[in-house]
Write a structure and sequence with these properties.
The complex is a heterodimer of chains A (261) and B (158). Chain A is α+β, with helices and mostly antiparallel strands and 261 residues long. Chain A contains 3 helices and 12 strands; from the N terminus they run αααββββββββββββ. Among the domains of chain A are: 37 residues; 79 residues, Rod shape-determining protein MreC, domain 2 (Thrombin, subunit H), CATH 2.40.10.350. Chain B has one domain: Arp2/3 complex 21 kDa subunit ARPC3. Helix content of chain B is 78%, strand content 0%. In chain B, helix 4 runs antiparallel to helix 5. Chain B starts with a helix and ends with a helix. Classes of the chains: A alpha+beta (261), B mainly alpha (158).
């Protein structure tokens, strides 16, 4: 009986029933209220730690400041080109088009086996199952369950990540394509398989999502290539990718919705 | 009092999980700890099982999005706790022993079920690590909670 209940609970396409939705929403509100003083202290401690590094950060930002104007100009130029190409090709959307929704992490389920987090935005805020979830450093997971005012995010560090994520690795001016097959929590690395092209992948090459399939928009940062080997049959390359995100430090996240036509 | 201990531990588990590293050595299982500590406060076992079932149900709804899974597992753990309390008396050392045994059983049982019904691959090292990860913080919490409960018991005579 336990096995049947668990199997039914873990079905990927299962939606929460109305009772579960109400309970989850109440739980989210209660946890948010209880967490407020703890979060306040945590934020203050972070603030104090950051204050010690202010001068170093100022120096870093000062160096970057000169580059910002040129990057903005370049970005605007590229956006204009995309708009013109969309007009020419009569495209309403491209794979990288997305809508942003910010959310706060209410709880992280670490006592349980699956790496999941609960966020304080739900279907009433426009969240839908399957949306990509990111932090400023890169992709962290996808929405798996949605109630009215909260949602569950399955992290990429989750062992039970059934959906293989399609990624591309920058090689020279082009890209090679592969699939993330697993995550190693000890080294914070993903394994990317299925790269059949005979090309040299440089250490430190950016790995981003392709936008293929229905889950993730393209261009989301996943990590950087760390080590390249070949599979057991010497037919394709296996790349160890250092995750760009730190799964231990998730307080605020952004949910991405791919723009549909 | 019993309900308050469970509710505080239940909420604290959610709060603490936000501040400890996801792959670190501090995986809180405070709800299970609370169920172990409050057992001697019950006069009747049926009442204890009722509390356990409801706590498990809330755990399913709030934290894991599962249906009745933790309600049943917690009842099974309650059975283990009642049996262990028959042979071990109510003191600090025995609480730690019961805690260790319960974490071990809880982890093995949940992992076993998940391996059977999901695409997870059985990994002995991961299982051992998860047990070790759960031990430190929960043993500390169980000692603290036991101390507080004993103090309150003396003061308010419940």
């Amino acid at each position: 009986m336990v096995l049947t209940l668990l199997a039914a609970s873990l079905k990927e396409d299962r939606d929460l029933n109305p009772i579960e939705k109400v309970a989850k929403d109440i739980g989210t509100v209660v946890l948010k209220v209880v967490s407020t003083p703890f979060n306040f202290v945590h934020d203050k401690l972070d603030e104090m730690a950051e204050k010690n590094n202010l001068y170093k950060k100022y120096k870093e930002l000062k160096n970057k400041e000169d580059q910002v104007d040129s990057v903005i100009a370049q970005n605007e130029n590229l956006q204009n080109e995309i708009d013109k190409l969309k007009e020419t090709l009569d495209l309403k959307t491209v794979l990288s088009d997305k809508v942003y929704l910010n959310a706060t992490v209410v709880s992280r389920n670490i006592g349980y086996w699956y790496d999941e987090i609960t966020i304080d935005k739900g279907s009433k805020n426009g969240i839908e199952k399957g949306m990509a979830v990111i932090i400023p450093d890169g992709l962290i997971g996808q929405i798996t369950k949605v109630s009215n005012y909260s949602s569950t995010v399955k992290l990429l560090s989750n062992e039970n990540m059934n959906d293989k994520i399609s990624v591309k690795i920058k090689v020279g001016d082009g890209y090679v394509y592969g699939l993330i097959s697993m995550y190693d929590s000890k080294t914070n690395t993903y394994t990317v398989e299925g790269i059949s092209e005979n090309v040299d992948i440089e250490k430190g090459a950016d790995v981003v999502t392709t936008g293929m399939g229905t889950i993730f928009p393209s261009g989301l940062m996943v990590g950087t290539a760390q080590k390249v080997t070949t599979d057991n049959f010497d037919l394709s390359k296996v790349v160890e990718v250092k995750a760009s995100v730190n799964f231990d430090d998730l307080d605020y996240v952004t949910v991405l919705k791919r723009k549909s036509e | 009092m019993k309900a308050i201990i469970i509710i505080i531990s239940f909420l604290l588990e959610g709060v603490v999980s936000n501040f400890v590293p996801i792959n670190g050595f501090f995986a809180p299982l405070f709800t299970l700890v609370a169920l172990i500590i409050i057992y001697p406060l019950f006069d009747e076992e049926v009442e204890y099982y009722k509390y356990t079932f409801l706590t498990g149900l809330a755990y399913d709804l709030f934290y894991t999005d599962t249906i009745l899974f933790h309600a049943i597992i917690f009842c099974f753990m309650a059975f283990i706790i009642t049996r262990l309390n028959l042979v071990l008396s109510d003191n600090y050392l025995n609480i730690l022993i019961i805690m260790g045994i319960c974490i071990l059983i809880y982890r093995v049982v949940t992992y076993g079920f998940l391996v059977l019904v999901s695409s997870m691959v059985f990994d002995m090292a991961a299982l051992i690590m998860s047990i070790l990860k759960s031990l430190i913080i929960n043993l500390i919490y169980s000692v603290l909670l036991f101390f507080i409960v004993k103090k309150c018991q003396k003061k308010y005579k419940f």
